[in-house]
Write a structure and sequence with these properties.
With about 230 residues, this protein is of the alpha+beta class. It folds into 2 domains: about 100 residues, Pdz3 Domain (Roll); about 100 residues, N-terminal domain of MutM-like DNA repair proteins. The protein contains 4 helices and 14 strands. Strands 1, 2, 3, 4, 7 and 8 form a 6-stranded antiparallel beta sheet that branches. Strands 9, 10, 11, 12, 13 and 14 form a 6-stranded antiparallel beta sheet that branches. The protein is elongated and about 75 Å long.
Length: about 230
């Protein structure tokens, strides 16, 4: 059965009159698109002002009117419009772009974040030169209580920088005693960025780079420009 769709954009309230005037929506409401999910072909662009979703007007506070009993209504977050929509549901949308109204329609897709939130994701790991490498997942972050790690914060803020595809954030989660790493220290959650100069896309890719290495040296590049 289909899962629930996910809004393919992040937004900012237009809380001041100057902001609404600057984006040419004074008196109309709407919210500014700050980021667009690269995994969804929505047609949205950063700085679009979303005026309507599913035919409902969006206020500058990011809220929409929901009808209640006896002709009354209550204003709730625009995310309410998505909470009962399944994947492949068409989402008609009206935006203000470069001084013109533009009508769009896109099909909702499931969220595919770079840092997986699926609790059923297998607990993979790879050990290279005593370094324990794992893909960053919400399950790992919760178990390790690593919410305030620099690498975790950077990954969460950058999840929409590019399409997810086969990418993972690979991090150092531990160090085992090994003659190669004697005397070295790494912080937990340091990111594995490259192997022999090639950027690491995922844990599987890291394993392939290690297995295919024909050089005399295997150089691991981690965040903060440290090398092993």
């Amino acid at each position: 059965s289909p899962g629930l769709g996910s809004p393919p954009f992040r937004w900012q309230k237009l809380e001041t009159e100057d902001m609404r005037s600057y984006f040419d929506v004074f008196g109309r409401g709407g919210v500014r698109v700050t980021a667009v999910d690269p995994n969804v072909d929505s047609g949205l662009q950063p700085d679009d002002i979303v005026l309507e979703l599913f035919g409902e007007s969006v206020g500058f506070d990011g809220k929409v009117a929901v009808p209640l009993a006896q002709g009354e209504s209550e204003r709730v977050s625009l995310w309410f419009l998505f909470c009962d929509k399944f994947t492949n549901t068409a989402c008609p949308c009206l935006v203000r772009r470069n001084g013109e109204d533009v009508r769009l329609s896109f099909h909702l897709q499931p969220a595919r974040p770079l840092v997986s939130v699926d609790p059923a994701v297998p607990n993979e790991f790879l050990i290279v030169a005593g370094l324990v490498l794992q893909p960053m997942t919400m399950a790992y972050i919760g178990d390790a209580e690593a919410w305030y790690s620099y690498e975790v914060m950077r990954a969460l803020h950058g999840m929409w920088d590019a399409a997810t595809a086969d990418r993972q954030v690979v991090v150092v989660t531990g160090m085992l005693s090994h003659e190669v790493n004697a005397g070295m220290a790494f912080s937990r959650e340091d990111g594995l960025e490259s192997i022999n100069g090639e950027r690491v896309r995922s844990l599987r890719h890291a394993s392939e780079l290690v297995d295919s290495c024909t050089s005399d040296w295997l150089v691991l590049g981690v965040s903060a420009k440290n090398l092993l």
